[in-house]
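Run log // design_07
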């Protein structure tokens, strides 16, 4: 029986460095897959011995995509350890910054990172712009621009790109691939919105510059936010919060909500309607194991489902009726394994470590039977270590995290923001809940998420205005700023529900310095290599069973892996540039 090997390395249109290796069976479907994080920087090691109040600025640099979320998890971890309570304004401002991050990140993912798996930009050249205008006016009557002249202009720009042979951002797509199903007019629509989404990003992140000084990597502060509130000031962006900047943020929030409702959501529905089979492919472990840490605490300093807009919980073995409580400090719940990861544990690699006891000692050795050089391997095996990503587990289970997990958790718990939206979308697409456990389920779940966060942006601006108008201008609690006020030894956890899923930072403080720091990140969960028992992760399981139309151009692998919105920079806590080459190796 012949077996075809497929290697996608690096897998691009993600953050960081990911290699995916798959075996294609004689039935044309993927029979095995391996996910490898191919670089490591060791942020956790850099933090040892540092001032805990500085940690946020270091870990924020883990990633420029989910910008700010690691800083948020870090200040929460240190505040939890020391016992610092943040004031109401700080809670609202952090929520507003995070809702802004989500909205920007999800829109960017759909258009800039994922859309080209479904959209054939080159086919848009053959579209009739009048047809595109008619589709635009039908699926989203309020969105402008929507004229035939506008779409003809976009098409002209595209033609110029193609004529010069400089496809720039549209280089290296699988143009003309038989798995591409959108008609030219829809391809032109999506391409126009790809360009509109670039303007959207630039506009929306201005909220970060107002509240956190800049983007990417806005500023955070242990104890609150470093954002001066002064309603008697009249300056514009850069002077912190006053009537001018508040009203500016209100306008941005309105624009964000409008773009999400009138462009992103209709486009997801339109694209999905041409690819119904992708609601049956790519589910992996999502129908079994899902984990959420929750986000958007509406009651300051309270982390439970009474306070959190996005709920917290774990679903195991598909038991939606029994959402289990999550306690990240319980050493029996979260453990990281390194049997298949390029790390070594002082006490032996055969047992998992809770992050408070976590270690990050690198150990780069190729697995048994690997082919190629140490510095340029061609084929990896699961007989040993094969990734810079650790394998975290919750109560012994590999878990999927992210938008799909949040939507299903929300449905299981009856959380209205998720349940109502999910039910309405599934009804409109005429799909059962099980359709969520798929590649397009993940993509649709992200759109539901974004609808929630775009609405939250406006709500948090209003909350902030109301609270400040009521006379509260306090942005930080500095009572425990001085290390002399801290316990000699303490530990803390900072949880977040990041755009890509459950995020946790764990800190151990001794004598005012960091004795240990461990981050367990969304893509660490999803992109993990096999665990100590050989169980496969969300990425690895999601590819199995996928039919591949053309093994030389495995767009199907990109569709499913991109549906997770991978961030390997986060997963292996590294930070570097992407490559562009895609290779395939065949063997008998
Ligand atoms: Ni670098 Fe991140 C998000 C975090 S994911 S993108 O969302 O945390 O692994
Ligand atoms: Mg880690």
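design_07 sequence
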């Amino acid at each position: 029986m012949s077996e075809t090997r497929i290697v996608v390395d690096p897998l691009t249109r993600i953050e960081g460095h990911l290699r995916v290796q798959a075996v294609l069976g004689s039935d044309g479907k993927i029979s095995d897959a391996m996910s490898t994080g191919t670089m490591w920087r060791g942020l956790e090691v850099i933090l040892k011995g540092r001032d805990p109040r500085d940690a946020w600025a270091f870990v924020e640099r883990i990633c420029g995509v989910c910008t700010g979320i690691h800083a948020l998890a870090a200040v929460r971890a240190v505040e939890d350890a020391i016992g610092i309570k943040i004031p109401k304004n700080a809670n609202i401002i952090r929520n507003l910054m995070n809702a802004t991050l989500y909205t920007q990140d999800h829109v960017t993912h759909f258009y800039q990172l994922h859309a080209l798996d479904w959209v054939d930009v080159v086919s848009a050249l053959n579209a009739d712009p009048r047809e595109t205008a008619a589709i635009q006016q039908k699926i989203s009557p309020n969105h402008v621009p929507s004229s035939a002249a506008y779409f003809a202009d976009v098409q002209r720009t595209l033609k110029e790109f193609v004529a010069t042979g400089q496809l720039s951002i549209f280089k290296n797509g699988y143009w003309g691939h038989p798995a591409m199903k959108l008609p030219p007019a829809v391809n032109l629509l999506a391409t126009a919105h790809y360009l509109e989404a670039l303007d959207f990003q630039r506009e929306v992140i201005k909220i970060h510059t107002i509240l956190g000084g800049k983007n990417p990597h806005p500023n955070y502060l242990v104890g609150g936010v470093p954002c001066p509130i002064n309603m008697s000031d009249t300056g514009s962006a850069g002077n912190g919060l006053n009537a001018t900047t508040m009203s500016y943020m209100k306008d941005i929030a309105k624009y964000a909500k409008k773009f999400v409702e009138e462009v992103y959501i209709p486009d997801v529905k339109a694209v999905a309607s041409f690819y119904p089979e992708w609601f049956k492919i790519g589910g992996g472990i999502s129908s079994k194991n899902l984990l959420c840490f929750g986000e958007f605490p509406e009651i300051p300093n309270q982390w439970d489902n009474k306070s959190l807009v996005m709920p917290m919980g774990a679903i195991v073995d598909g038991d939606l009726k029994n959402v289990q409580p999550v306690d990240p400090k319980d050493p029996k719940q979260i453990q990281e394994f390194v049997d298949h990861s390029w790390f070594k544990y002082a006490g032996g690699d055969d047992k998992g470590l809770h992050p408070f006891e976590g270690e990050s000692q690198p150990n780069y050795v190729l697995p048994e039977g690997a082919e190629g050089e140490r510095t340029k391997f061609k084929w990896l095996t699961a007989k040993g270590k094969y990734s810079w990503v650790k394998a975290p587990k919750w109560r012994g289970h590999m878990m999927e995290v992210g938008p799909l997990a949040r939507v299903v958790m929300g449905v299981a718990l009856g959380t209205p923001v998720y349940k109502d939206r999910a039910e309405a979308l599934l009804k409109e697409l005429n799909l059962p809940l099980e359709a969520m456990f798929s590649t397009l389920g993940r993509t649709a779940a992200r759109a539901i998420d974004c609808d929630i966060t775009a609405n939250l942006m406006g709500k948090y601006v209003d909350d902030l205005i109301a609270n400040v108008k009521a006379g509260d201008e306090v942005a930080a609690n500095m009572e425990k700023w001085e290390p002399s006020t801290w316990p000699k030894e303490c530990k803390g956890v900072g949880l977040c529900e990041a755009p890509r899923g459950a995020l946790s930072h764990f800190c151990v403080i001794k004598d005012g310095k960091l004795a240990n720091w461990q981050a367990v990140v969304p893509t660490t969960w999803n992109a993990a290599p096999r665990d100590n028992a050989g169980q496969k992760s969300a990425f690895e399981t999601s590819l199995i069973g996928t039919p591949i139309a053309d093994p030389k151009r495995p767009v199907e692998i990109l569709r499913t892996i991109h549906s997770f919105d991978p961030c390997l920079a986060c997963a292996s806590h590294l930070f570097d540039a992407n490559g562009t080459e895609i290779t395939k190796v065949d063997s008998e």
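DSSP finds 16 helices and 14 strands in the chain.
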